[in-house]
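Following up on my earlier thread - several people asked me to post the actual chain instead of describing it. Fair enough. Here it is, all 153 residues.
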Amino acid sequence: MLDEQMKETLKDAACKLTGSKKRAFMAKVAEDYFDASARKAETHLGWGRQTVQLGLHERASGVVCLDYYQGRGNRRSEAKQPELEQAMRALVDGQSQADPTFRTTFYYARVSAQSVRDALIAEKGYRDEDLPTRQTIGAMLNRMGYRLKKHKK
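Reply from S.P.:
Thanks for posting it. Predicted structure:
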C-alpha cells in the first residue's frame, strides 16, 4: 500500500485545501490508491468517510455541491425571538441617555443586563427558561446601540 511518508504527504495536502477542491483531491486519492473505497481511505488516512464519498459522487456525476458555511451555527437571539428586542427596547429606553459629549451615537443605559432580564420576567411575562442568559442580553443591548454603564457605589 502506501508508506508512512506518503500518507503524511497526502494528509498534509488535504489539510491545505477546502471545500470542493478538498473533496476532489480526496476522491482522486481514493480512486488511485484505495480502489475508490471511502472506507479504506478513512481507515488508512483518517479522512471522513462521508466527505470522501461525497467527493467520489461529485467526480462521477460532474456536479459539485455548494458549501453553505453561512448557514451553520447558532442564530442570534434577535432572529429566534423578534418580539424580545422590542420588549427590551421598551424597558431600556426610559433608562438611557445620549452620550453627553456627543462623540458617539450610542445610548448609555443606566441599567444592567441582569436587571433587564429580571424586568422581562417580572413586567413582560417571560419565563426564565425562555430568555437568553445575562451575557446574551448584554450582547443584544450592545448590538441595539446601548452601552451599559457600570453602577457607581
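Strands lie at 96-98, 107-109, 146-148. That should answer part of your original question.
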